[in-house]
Amino acid sequence: MNIPVPTALLLLSLICHSIARQVNISVSASTILGDLPPVARFFGCDEPNYATYPDGRAVLSHLGNLGPHQTYFRTHNLLTTCDPPSDTTPHRLKWGCTDAYTEDADGRPIYNFTITDLIFDAYLENGVKPYVQTGFMPKALSTHPDPYSFDFDGGASANNIFTGWSNPPTSWAKWGELIYQWARHCVERYGAAEVESWYWEVWNEPNIAYWNGTEEEYFMLYDYAVDGVLRALPSATVGGPEVAGGASGDWLGLFLDHTLNGQNAVTNATGSPIDFISFHAKGSPIFINATDSVPGHLQMNMATALQNVNDAFSVIQSFGALNHLPVFIGEDDPDSCAACISPNVDYRNGLIYPSYTAAAFTREIDLAVQYSVNLTGALTWAFEYDDHPYFDGFRGVGTRLEANSTGQARLDDVLANSVKGELSDVGVLASMSAEGDKLALIIWNYHDDALPKPDAEISLRISDVFPGRSAVGLTHYRIDETHSNAFSAWLNLGSPQDPTQEQIVGLKADGMLQMLHSPSTLKLKDGIADIEFELPIHSVSLLVIE
């Protein structure tokens, strides 16, 4: 008998909820595994100008208030030219412009940092610092400037966007001087101490079409940009190369070798300054078509992104003179098509996104430990748009304690196979505050398939909890279908594209982190705390005990 797909999905959901999976989690509050890097404090987007718009400022305010660690923001197009100069829509998809550099009729440079100032002001006013990207190529400097600007329609193919801004400069000296003038201006405007706390990286994904020059030309681009920054502020923090796809074949290794042994294009000396190393990691979700027994559904692929990380860490580890440097995953995403709209990226509004992030970031921290790499940041490539449809599918965080889960997949298995088997990945990450007065645990129930799966019946035991105490406070936060989920709330309203002001206020509240229940008192017996709860598929719990 053929069962209609919607009926099959409903039956599958009922079966999954009726047969919960028992998962036992143990945490030792006295067993410290090492420092837990605050990697989830970096964010970014293609479109720089949105930072100055009301919704952009609101997002920056949320990011700046995350605490306790400093939040950073990375964006493209900080040096891109508005084309034509009367361009009145710099806030469109995958585009942005600042007119930072133009030339007069005689080819003399004209520097204008008014718009970049507005962008950086918006960051700093909201407690966020710039992760400065030196790019892209101003039209007046591009070796092949036309066509220059573009309109992106959200289609899966983005090849039409790589226009004049992606080309090498007509003059390397002018390129280096532009970066010098920009960095010097930032020091004059914000002060040396402030700019010292920023990261300055050169370009974006030069191993693919974002850079229409050769590899050697990118090394020249890097040398001139870094020289410009350091001439303005010798104590600035510089790095790169922000390659796509982890090690990207030989790209990352050849770049690191250049910084150690290559001939510097500016000084002719050996090597080029580098204070941090950056690369990108991308997953590869697909859409599985419906069959008689299984509905059509999205399937994630965490293993692809983790392989990118694994490959890059392996290369970095091999450079003994550099492997102590901070490492950034400058774009750390479940897919590789920012701002695209297709069934392959439908995860962006759903529960699968936060559970993926929790599971993936934890494995990346584990890989960093395995390779003895100084992972400092994993940057979420997020987006904030004014004047776009609601929920249109764009991507919108002490010390580590010993924690074990009977439902957590092994790192090697996830690296090789992702999470595509019969069982979901029910994992845990636990930490203690530096002051020793707050214990936090994040627990997730993740699977690559966006399909119903059994709930996890969590039986959590924490030992050695605040010796001498008989009771502590417990706050349990949750992301699921009915908590911390503005998208579900919006669907329940009938998906309004013109919500009332009251509805907007409610949706913003629904999107904030919410408690599963009111704060409670947790009784301790001999330093042991026992907690039990259900965790649905693709849900995430954050438990704070203090």
UniProtKB/TrEMBL annotation:
<dbReference type="InterPro" id="IPR051923">
    <property type="entry name" value="Glycosyl_Hydrolase_39"/>
</dbReference>
<dbReference type="InterPro" id="IPR049166">
    <property type="entry name" value="GH39_cat"/>
</dbReference>
<protein>
    <submittedName>
        <fullName>Glycoside hydrolase family 39 protein</fullName>
    </submittedName>
</protein>
<feature type="active site" description="Proton donor">
    <location>
        <position position="205"/>
    </location>
</feature>
<keyword id="KW-0732">Signal</keyword>
<dbReference type="InterPro" id="IPR017853">
    <property type="entry name" value="GH"/>
</dbReference>
<dbReference type="GO" id="GO:0005975">
    <property type="term" value="P:carbohydrate metabolic process"/>
</dbReference>
<comment type="similarity">
    <text>Belongs to the glycosyl hydrolase 39 family.</text>
</comment>
<feature type="domain" description="Glycosyl hydrolases family 39 N-terminal catalytic">
    <location>
        <begin position="99"/>
        <end position="508"/>
    </location>
</feature>
<dbReference type="GO" id="GO:0004553">
    <property type="term" value="F:hydrolase activity, hydrolyzing O-glycosyl compounds"/>
</dbReference>
<feature type="signal peptide">
    <location>
        <begin position="1"/>
        <end position="20"/>
    </location>
</feature>
<dbReference type="Pfam" id="PF01229">
    <property type="entry name" value="Glyco_hydro_39"/>
</dbReference>
<keyword id="KW-0378">Hydrolase</keyword>
<dbReference type="InterPro" id="IPR000514">
    <property type="entry name" value="Glyco_hydro_39"/>
</dbReference>
<keyword id="KW-0326">Glycosidase</keyword>
